[in-house]
Design goal:
alpha/beta, 33% helix, 331 residues, eight-stranded mixed β-sheet
């Protein structure tokens, strides 16, 4: 059976329906993520892409239930992880889910790992909490995990501190921590940022191998479209908190439809083209300055009068699996 057919037979392990996340700015709550919906099945990788500030990491924090209560909240929608509603759950229930059924690899391992605790302690902590292991058993399992993510001399390095590892090795430690309790859903937020190309390829290959072994559903957050092309099954493009395009990965690269998606691809260096890179003019507006309609309208070369109204995320006639939020391109 092909990998595509296997993925189609898997039930969604992560379901996000109409997610709206608000941020408190200047004493007022403003929608930073608006009505985002998607699913991720076992053995499927969905990539969430866009510029910094478009809402990718905020979506991930909403799923994990890690929003600081005084500055961020889920205003509407439903988030289901392996059958559990994370929005309706109590904080105790969410704590039981995090690190167990759903785990996250954060952007920068040097700031995510505790510098005064050994890596063995930090990996073993989740096993003691969620699996009830003794410290000795958790330590043995931590060594197995480090070996699994190919950290050399794992037994000798189990008591090392984060600063004693290279960037690539710290990222492997983060992956080992995330996979310690064998979660069903893995959120990888820029897992290859600041890594050189060789280490980046090794980390991505490792994630793909582990996904095949344990059936992970992976939500990959990145701005690197080269990474998306190599590992993702589907692509969600975000701008200003809206999903503006949702497509199978091959369809997305063959036919980027939203003007923002086109701009992202034109700004990306390609080995098969010597053309000049074209930057998207302007910048992502701040939340107080976000327009009510299409949030890309101020930077869009195809802007029409109707763009002051918010377009729906609509399927293309030629490809119903490919959706775009644009009055011009979806018509």
């Amino acid at each position: 059976m092909s990998a595509a057919l296997v993925r189609q037979s898997e039930a969604p392990l992560l379901q996000v329906e109409g997610l709206t996340t608000s941020i408190r700015v200047g004493g007022a709550w403003r929608d930073a993520v608006r009505e985002v919906s998607f699913t991720v099945a076992g053995r499927e990788t969905v990539a969430l892409v866009g510029e910094s500030g478009c809402g990718k990491s905020l979506t991930a924090l909403s799923i994990m239930g890690l929003l600081a209560a005084k500055v961020g909240r889920v205003s509407a929608g439903r988030i289901t992880v392996d059958g559990v509603d994370m929005v309706a759950a109590s904080e105790r229930q969410r704590e039981a889910m995090r690190g167990d059924r759903v785990a996250m690899i954060f952007q920068e391992p040097m700031t995510s790992l505790n510098p005064v605790l050994t890596i063995g302690f930090q990996i073993g902590e989740a096993l003691e909490r969620h699996r009830g292991m003794s410290r000795k058993a958790a330590r043995a399992r931590a060594i197995e995990l480090l070996e699994r993510v190919r950290v050399p001399s794992a037994k000798a390095r189990i008591d090392a501190y984060p600063h004693q590892f290279s960037g690539g090795m710290r990222q492997r430690v983060m992956i080992a921590m995330a996979l310690a309790c064998e979660p069903r859903v893995l959120i990888a937020d820029e897992p290859t940022t600041a890594l050189d190309v060789t280490i980046q390829a090794q980390v991505l290959a490792l994630l793909a191998e582990l996904q095949r072994e344990v059936g992970l559903a992976i939500l990959l957050i990145t701005h690197n479209l080269g990474v998306v092309a190599s590992v993702a099954d589907r692509v969600l493009v975000m701008y200003g908190g809206d999903v503006v395009e949702n497509a199978p990965v091959r369809s997305f690269f063959a036919r980027p439809t939203h003007p923002y998606s086109e701009g992202l691809l034109k700004a990306m260096p390609r080995v098969d083209s010597a053309g000049e890179l074209v930057a998207i003019p302007g910048h992502v507006p701040t939340l107080p300055d976000m327009p009510d309609g299409c949030r890309f309208q101020a930077r869009c070369p195809l802007r029409i009068e109707r763009c002051t109204e918010r377009p729906p995320l609509a399927p293309l006639r030629a490809d119903p699996a490919h959706e775009v939020r644009c009055w011009v391109r979806a018509s």
